[in-house]
Amino acid sequence: xxxxxxxxxxxxxxxxxxxxxxxxxxxxxxxxxxxxxxxxxxxxxxxxxxxxxxxxxxxxxxxxxxxxxxxxxxxxxxxxxxxxxxxxxxxxxxxxxxxxxxxxxxxxxxxxxxxxx
Length: 117
Ligand SMILES: [Zn+2]
Known about the structure:
Elements: H1 2-20, E1 25-34, H2 41-51, E2 61-67, E3 69-73, E4 79-82, E5 97-101, E6 105-113
Parallel strand pairs: 1-2
Antiparallel strand pairs: 1-6, 3-4, 3-5
Helix pairs in contact: 1-2
């Protein structure tokens, strides 16, 4: 499953961050998921729940931020958010567009908790 290997790399980031901050627990994880990332949010959530067992993030909540597709036009330089099926420039109608957002899967924020010792 695609989502499981993505979650594995997310956990590498979590564990690295928790260690760097001397945290005992991860309480919340916010992930940016682009609409064109090919990731199914439901599967990502269940992969997260499976993977977190026995880790620092066992009690963590996962929040998924939906990132819309943004296109940048090579002809007029315009940039705009577009629906998934329409890959043309909103300003001039050119099809020479580049996808500048919507493919990402990034850790936006991690909330950590220390034991305070
Ligand atoms: Zn254009």
